[in-house]
Specification:
Elements (H helix, E strand, L loop, with lengths): L47 E2 L5 E2 L1 H4 L4 E6 L7 H19 L4 E5 L3 H10 L6 E3 L4 H5 L20 E6 L4 E5 L10 H9 L2
Parallel strand pairs: 3-4, 4-5
Antiparallel strand pairs: 1-2, 3-6, 6-7
Helix pairs in contact: 2-5
Length: 193
């Protein structure tokens, strides 16, 4: 957990990500960059599409307290995202009980996400962000791969806790895409909110 960068950015804590030397643009958060909206700020309005093809917003996916919004690069080709999505399944029920249901978002098509969720027995929803509009609204697009047909539109992986009123309560991310906040940290963050 020592490499967990500013892992929990609660309202009283502020820190930026640090780029690790020798990593390429896909493997790091740019030096000095803080991902996503600041803790305490309002999250942007967004819309994502569930695997049934219906549009969903914060109001439709939030639980009693809000939502745990997990942005991943891809459930298709990213082995680190696939592992993270499977690992988070262990805490999804607990997050739901705490009033912070989890929703994972990627630029993958809904059919692919539905297949991945079913094949892996996920108990939380995966949602598509066509055209990476929500990714852009949150300011988390990995610009280091812009123009690449396969990777254009992917986010830097991040987990945001967004209250029902739209306030960002906490966020978790790592400097390198190969590492993800452990599911225990995600759960303990929700417990602390």
């Amino acid at each position: 957990m020592k490499n967990l960068l500013a892992a929990i950015l609660l309202a009283s804590v502020s820190a930026g990500a640090i780029a690790a030397p020798g990593l390429n643009a896909m493997a790091q958060v740019p030096a000095g960059m803080e991902l996503g909206p600041k803790v305490g700020a309002k999250a942007p309005a967004f819309s994502v599409v569930d695997t049934a093809g219906s549009s969903q917003t914060l109001a439709s996916i939030a639980g009693a307290k809000g939502v745990t919004l997990v942005f991943v690069r891809s459930a298709d080709w990213c082995p680190f995202c696939k592992a993270q999505l499977k690992n988070l399944n262990a805490v999804a029920g607990d997050l739901e009980k705490l009033g912070w249901p989890m929703v994972a978002v990627s630029y993958d098509p809904t059919e692919l996400l539905g297949g991945f969720a079913k094949a892996n027995g996920l108990v939380y929803p995966l949602m598509s962000d066509p055209g990476s509009k929500a990714i852009d609204a949150f300011g988390i697009r990995n610009e280091g791969v812009s123009g690449s047909p396969r990777f254009n539109g992917i986010p830097h992986p991040i987990i945001l806790f967004i209250a029902k009123d739209g306030t960002v309560k906490a966020k978790l991310y790592e400097e390198a895409y190969q590492k993800r906040p452990p599911s225990e940290v995600v759960l303990s963050t929700a417990k602390g909110l």
